[in-house]
Design a protein that fits this description.
7 strands; 8 helices; seven-stranded parallel sheet; Rossmann fold; 14% strand; 41% helix; alpha/beta; 265 residues; single chain
């Protein structure tokens, strides 16, 4: 079966990683369904960039707190695009609070958006791919915290660990349909989420990261574009860290080490 993707959906693609992914997939020859939660103009800007690549853009609002209603947006976009080959679950949220101070409402909000909504949207996308009979690519943007925890991120860590596990199970179950399922786990990326919108990460000093800087959203998007491509036909159930080596140090060290002394023998 020859897989040639031409239709993709990227959730949370109004800014940051999601926007970069949408543009990268358009450059790879795909029409793109774009979703936004609170920044419609950001989504329209993403659409303009997709269209500048000569591809079609379809924009819809998706509220990941509306479970299971968020799945209807995936159905609508798939219909508008005429099918679905690649689905990237990027929408997410998080709270910073110590475990003993984390409220149940905070826990439920983070887990609902980062895991329950992801489950619903991935499931809807997978069903469309099964019906299409041409295979597909399911990709989840998780985090380095899919692999290692961080102080103050109990709900986020739990949700991202869960999402990573979900993707592995999907890979087992949908491989016979020619559908791959993989995760991309970013470290610190210069985006609005980290208060670094439109900043060049190469000008930032991060002594606790082996490459010495935050990442660029386009560096994450390049890995997603590979996983969405025909070249990744034999890659499934994997998680790709795009973190400048942060996981080798531990996410806490990556952000809290303030000198390069650790590099010395």
């Amino acid at each position: 079966m020859t897989f040639q993707p031409t239709r993709a959906i990227v959730t949370g693609s109004d800014s940051g990683i999601g926007k970069a992914v949408a543009v990268a997939l358009a450059a790879a020859g795909m029409d793109v369904g774009i979703t936004w939660h609170s920044d419609e103009e950001g989504a329209r800007d993403t659409a303009r960039e997709v269209e500048s690549q000569g591809r079609r853009a379809v924009v819809r609002r998706l509220d990941a707190t509306e479970v299971p209603g968020c799945g209807d947006v995936i159905d609508d976009l798939t219909t508008e695009l005429g099918g679905l080959d690649v689905f990237v679950n990027n929408a997410g949220t998080g709270h910073n609070a110590l475990f003993v101070e984390l409220t149940l409402d905070q826990w439920r909000h983070t887990v609902s958006v980062d895991l329950e909504a992801a489950f619903i949207c991935l499931q809807r996308a997978a069903r469309h791919m099964q019906r299409g009979g041409q295979g597909g690519r399911l990709i989840a943007i998780t985090s380095v915290h899919e692999h290692q925890p961080r102080v103050g991120s109990a709900a986020y860590d739990a949700a991202k660990h869960g999402l990573g596990g979900l993707m592995k199970t999907i890979a087992l179950e949908l491989g016979r349909d020619g559908i791959t399922a993989n995760s991309v786990a970013p470290g610190e990326i210069a985006t609005p989420m980290t208060d670094q919108e439109d900043e060049d990460p190469r000008g930032k000093d991060r002594p606790g990261v082996p490459l010495g800087r935050p990442g660029d959203a386009r560096e994450v998007a390049a890995v997603v574009a590979f996983l969405a491509s025909p070249d990744a036909a034999y890659v499934t159930g994997a998680s790709y860290a795009v973190d400048g080596g942060m996981l080798q140090m531990g996410p806490q060290a990556g952000s809290h080490i303030e000198s390069d002394d650790w590099r010395q023998v």
